Predict the 3D structure of the following.
Amino acid sequence: MQTNQKTLGMLPLVLFSVGCTLASGVFALSGDFAYAGAYTLGTLLGWAITFVGMLGLVGCFLRLTVVKPELTSGIYSYARAGFGEYIGFNSAWGYWLSAILAYVTFSTGFLGSLSELLPFLGDGMNLASLIIGSVILWLLVLLLLNGVNQAVIINAVAVIFKAIPIVFLVVAAIFAGAFDFDTFMNNFTGEGSGMSVFEQTKACIFTTVWVFIGIEGAVVISTRAKDTKLAGRASIISFVALFALYFIISFLSMGVADHDTLVSFTDNYTFSMAGVMEYIVGPWGATLVNVAAVISIGCALLTYVILCSDSAFGPANMKCFPKIFVKRNKKDQPMYSIIFSALFVEVFMIVATINSASYQNCYYLSTIAIMIPYMLSAFYAFKLTANGELTAGLTGSGRMWTWLAAIIGSIYGIWMLYASSFSYILVCALMYLPGVIIYIIKRREEGGPIFPKAYDKVVFIVLCALFVLFFVLIASGNQFVLSGF
């Protein structure tokens, strides 16, 4: 869905990036922190690490768009430029999978939030939800096949309207006087919970990364920006605005209801914010949240159909995916990128329905898939900083901030994988290894060696070993691995 027109300015880029990011996560983050086992201190530390780490990561994106404007297809192009064909392919594959699984997550949340009006939809994971979700998916596909420009404009306008009810929730929590400092400080460290503060902090990783998936959206569509520098700056602005909103909601929620009550909200409501609002103003507050969720996530469905197809077209355009993904229809849209992305979404929706996967199950998988592309992007920024490319022409504070972004972004990339636990590393290998089929098809089209570099073979062997280990442990009934689902 990329076009040759460079027409997007700062505001549309910010709105697109926010539209990629601001969706279902904001309505669930308070309860999800508590459900993961994090008490107040653990949650605050999780947010502190996220702010520093994500700011470093976005800073890497910002500098890379300035120094490497030719790498226009987003974060997967950085991995390919820095580490070669196979690692670059895996970064692209992981990003595409993450976008696809994010769509599945949003679809689950969207249909689940509609269940108050349409009870037959249940939790968004039954047969009726699958049918309705599939109809919505293919209607969006038809829209995009007939021109992406209209879709981008619709999304930009919708972002403004879906932000209004979320801001209202924050204002209502403050002026209703529901925040209680004693509640906020109650069992501040989670003593007696069975988890140390460090373990609680680690437990925040999936939620904190999930609510920022899409922040790089302005970079991914940088080919449509008037200036590639604008794409990086738009990501910074989007991140700071979203972090402030997320943190305020999380902070207020912990002062409205204690840890155990927040956990109960994850069981009794599709989104825990509905429970928080009902706690503050009564049942109509929960209804308001559900309405806001329907609007917000409905817009995100459109955004992520765009992002899914861009995440296939972009790599194909730089010869990282098979060339069929770049073929266009009469409307000048990348037809096969759109259709194949939708087919993958459909498959995952069916699998999720059969396995009664929860909203959390889906977004955990989307999050673990994107951690690799994020980490590799930061490593590439560090590589270019070390050889002087990113710091060329900079002096003083500019040079210092470039180094800080590269170092912090790289450390945060390692932290994400470490905090997610080994069981999810195995799940990640399960998702990544099958991509080698598409990779081999692409390499045969080019006629080059399958694995051009020696370390490509090492990466492939490691993925195979982790893939086999996963099934060996599953066959033995290992509960540690099963905890990854």
Notes: Residues 423-485 form one domain. The first helix runs from residue 10 to 21. The mean pLDDT is 83. The radius of gyration is 22 Å.
